[in-house]
Fold this sequence. Notes:
Blueprint: H1 4-7, H2 9-16, H3 29-50, H4 56-67, H5 69-79, H6 85-96, H7 108-126, H8 130-142, H9 154-164
Amino acid sequence: MLEETQLCLEAYIRQKFEIQKQDIRSYSPLTLAYIGDGIYELVIRTVVVGKGNKQVNKLHREASRYVKAQAQSAMMDRIGPMLTDKEADIYRRGRNAKSFTTAKNASVNDYRRATGFEALMGYLYLCGEIPRIIELVKEAVDHYTPNERAGTETRNLYEETLAKE
């Protein structure tokens, strides 16, 4: 088992870049979602690459099935009951945050739930709770069946639409 100090990437980055630790309560839910998006994608990319060497476009397609807003929203159904009161509060704050952007291919509801999911990932990361992130993501991914159409290039969908006409 890795030592706890080996698991805290955030603390190591702060140390090497001489960044003072901030009070996590000072971060907006959208800031938590911003960092959480990156951490979640890193976890998913690590899992996808760990399953074997493939062409980069195939890796991207596979990872995209799990990082899109619809997937994150669906995953919240699975992990929601597992959240502590504090984690559920962070999720709600992220979900209810007033964002000025929307996802291109997601409903407003899915986008907001995904923002809450990412805020939770960001909060856990900044708290050094890497094992908790992995626990929640593993539970979510193990019980999520991705849509096989997800992650296909828009160009391919456009060509298929033209072919049907």
